[in-house]
Amino acid sequence: MLQTMVDPRMGLLAPYLIWTPLTVVAFVAIGLGGKNPLPALARAARDGRQRPGGRLIVGLVLGVILFNLVQCQVDPGLTQWLGYEMTGWIQSIEGDLVARVQASVPAAAPVLPFLGWLYLAGYIAVLITLPIVWTHVGKERALAPYLLAFLANYSLALPFYFFAPVTEVAFSGLSTARPLLDVLLPGITDAMRVGSSLDNCFPSLHVSCTVTALWFGHRHGPQGLRILTWMVAVLTAWAVMALGIHWGIDVATGIPFGIMCALLGESAAARLGYASASQKAASRA
User: Is residue 57 part of a domain?
Assistant: First the structure.
């Protein structure tokens, strides 16, 4: 695993490592309605170091990253042991839908970099932005259900990734779709295998997590966060197909999956005594 982690191709992830924090800054500003994001970022950094809840969030994020690294070392061997995958079945249902979606990508030069930025940096940035904005505007009660929903997305997707392997469209050999992310950054898919196996497609975690973020952003606001999460969720559903990564069925499944995880997060938080004000009001009604 260590040899994989220090693979020189990891240098291809430099744009991701650079653009993600910059995107977080921009997204926090949008979430706060155009206000200066620096006080919110400073408070989040301070809470992440000093408050037990902040340290828990940081530990959770680091734990997910570490688990992804381990899971991606085990996954290929498990798929080989299973001796089957579901890619052909999905292709038989939707045909070359993804290639047709790719045809929707305008020829204008900025479009492909935008899609690559959204997939690599915008996805992670919006997930990080919600807790930062809520902490700054005094809506900390939204944090517990949101974090539990985030955990539900990862934990409930794992059985599918382990036992229902589906290979990315452009690398499946079953579609005429092209790997446009590699057109933008040649070799990026190989570098990303450190934290995301090539056959971990069904359901789309990019779609499910951004839909979960949309659920909580819409319910808890503020208005800038509602607009941001709507934009990211809708554009991500388009981007993952336009880049030749996810099948249409991955996307279609990821939407209700993300909603289900949001509901599970709210239910679990209520049982643990972390119900939001809106949930408490609904329960009293």
Answer: yes
CA 142 to chain centre: 19
Total count of domains within the chain: 1
- How far apart (Å, rounded) are the C-alpha atoms in residues 239 and 207? 10
What tokens does 86 get? 């579901």
Report yes or no on 285 lying in a domain: no
For the chain (length 285 residues), average pLDDT per consecutive 10? 43 71 95 94 80 67 71 71 88 95 82 91 94 92 91 90 92 94 85 76 95 97 95 96 96 98 95 63 37
Whole-number CA gyration radius for the chain: 19
Residue 190 resides in a domain: yes
| Gap between the Cα atoms of 150 and 139, Å rounded | 17
Record the pTM: 0.87
Instruction: State the residue range of the domain holding 206.
Output: 2-280
Q: Is residue 42 part of a domain?
A: yes
